[in-house]
Design a protein that fits this description.
about 500 residues; alpha+beta; five-stranded antiparallel sheet; four-stranded antiparallel sheet; 17 helices; 16 strands; about 50% helix; elongated
Length: about 500
């Protein structure tokens, strides 16, 4: 019975199966491409079986008279067969034509192949169903193709440039690129005609593919996204160049915003009577971190120069007399006293009076630590405030480095203000000198100025938030900072 239904009237059966396949395919979800492909193959196989069983050859044109009542059925049946063949091939292409494991970047190539399949299907239907001479048609359409090519030359240039860029793969979606015309940003989208770039200013720049193909391109994201920065510093030649280089290297070593490996480099670029020119070379994790890292490096260079007694050189364009230039013999670098360090800490500079700063400085003690000395261990308490005079201190938690302190930084406020334990072990990374102010010296100030305690606790919270965002200190430090602030407010309100 099934045989009679399929092969008794093969043309009608084939047309019915063809339209049924179209309806089933239409109602299948596009989120299930594998199921769609299986359905397409099943219906195409069924249609092929009917054609073979009925002796109809879809790849040959069988001449028939126009008045033949079956002519329309044959044309429709062959057209449906070719359509289902094209859809089955396209299903394979969409699923399995993937460019190096990146289906999104392969979309352009898939669309190109799919277009070729559709063109082949249309020509096959014209040749084998309608008997149109394809050779003559192609020759005749050549003139039309030339006219269209001239009219659409810019669009075609974008399309073929897009194909070349996709196959060459100088970048993929998500890469940070820098063009020779100065445009830079992250590749947001790439299609047939243009590439969309998200700039650091949070704008979308749309560049035609033909224009992009002509520009020099630097892919910052390859082989990885670490980005090398260069920063030139001019130092007055009042010390040996080797000593100045060591101070600059200490400044880079204490920076929390740059990459540790490969280590930063200090290159001496030039020396004359006015300055020693030093180039700092360091890497950041991504181009978006360039500004924060540069800001921190400049701040640390200033602090380390002040700590080491180095002077910044005058600009090259400045007109100065040679006799006025500092030398090793007459240079008088500013001394880093406890008072100068207290005045450099924003919390104290904005809150304390001059007399209070002097009293606080007079009560400070100098402590020296050798390289590798442990200042305080995780879980212990520091009952005094310590300000870094010189050197670098590293903070470690469970053996993992979480941040570094440089000249001008302070620590120990958790124990001084709230009697809380340190969440990190603090170790001297280099020979280090600190100024220590104990609780006895601080107590009168905290009693008379509750705002000072809140300022210090707020600074601690801000620093902990910054370190947490930079994967330096753990989230517990943030909670401790807010706990300190809450405790201080409770004490002074009472």
């Amino acid at each position: 019975m099934i045989y009679d239904a399929l092969f008794g009237k093969p043309l009608i059966s084939l047309i019915a199966v063809g339209f049924a396949g179209i309806i089933v395919w239409y109602f299948l979800s596009s989120q299930r491409p594998t199921t769609r492909l299986v359905v397409q193959i099943l219906f195409f196989a069924m249609m092929t079986l009917i054609l073979v069983g009925s002796g109809i050859e879809p790849h040959r044109f069988q001449g028939y008279a126009s008045q033949d009542p079956q002519a329309l059925l044959v044309i429709l049946a062959k057209s449906l067969w070719w359509i289902h063949l094209a859809w089955a091939v396209i299903g394979f292409i969409r699923l399995y034509l993937v460019l190096e494991g990146s289906p999104r970047e392969a979309r352009l190539l898939q669309d190109l192949v799919v277009g070729i399949v559709y063109i082949g299907m249309m020509l096959s239907i014209l040749a084998f169903a309608f008997g149109v001479p394809i050779g003559t048609l192609v020759a005749t359409s050549g003139v039309v193709a030339i006219i269209l090519g001239l009219a659409l030359q810019n669009t075609l240039a974008d399309v073929f440039s897009g194909i070349a860029l996709t196959l060459g793969r100088p970048y993929v979606i998500g890469d940070w690129i820098l063009l020779s015309d100065g445009t830079e940003g992250r590749v947001f989208e790439s299609n047939w005609r243009a590439t969309h770039i998200l700039t650091p200013g949070n704008n979308i720049v749309v560049l035609p593919n033909s224009f992009l193909a002509k520009l020099g391109l630097t892919n910052v994201s390859r082989p990885d996204e670490t980005h090398l920065l260069f920063l030139t510093i001019r130092i007055a030649p009042t010390r040996m160049p080797a000593s100045i280089r060591q101070v600059m290297l200490s400044a880079l070593t204490s920076c929390n915003s740059i990459v540790r490996e490969p280590p930063p480099v200090v290159a001496l670029k030039g020396l004359d009577a006015t300055a020693l020119e030093v180039e700092l070379q360091f890497r950041v994790t991504s181009p978006s971190q360039r500004v924060p890292a540069r800001n921190e490096v400049l701040d640390l260079v200033y602090r380390h120069c002040k700590s080491a007694g180095l002077l910044l050189a005058v600009p090259p364009a400045a007109k100065v007399l040679t006799a006025d230039l500092p030398t090793e013999e007459n240079a008088k670098p500013p001394s880093v006293t406890p008072l100068a360090l207290i005045q450099a800490i924003p919390v104290f500079a904005a809150t304390l009076t001059s007399d209070e700063k002097e009293k606080l400085a007079e009560s400070s003690n100098v402590r020296q630590f050798r390289k590798g000395d442990v200042i305080v261990r995780e879980g212990e308490m520091l009952p005094s405030l310590m300000m870094v005079r010189a050197g670098i201190i590293v903070a470690r938690r469970e053996g993992e480095e979480r941040g570094r302190f440089a000249p001008g930084d302070f620590f120990g406020e958790t124990g001084l203000l709230a009697g809380m334990q340190e969440v990190c072990t603090l170790e001297a990374l280099t020979p280090t000198a600190v100024y220590e102010i104990d609780q006895e010296a601080f107590a009168p100030l905290l009693t008379e100025r509750p705002a000072l305690a809140e300022e210090i606790a707020a600074a601690l919270a801000e620093r902990a938030e910054r370190f947490r965002d930079g994967a330096a200190l753990p989230p517990e430090q943030v909670r401790n900072a807010h706990a300190i602030l809450k405790t201080i407010r409770t004490i002074f309100r009472a």
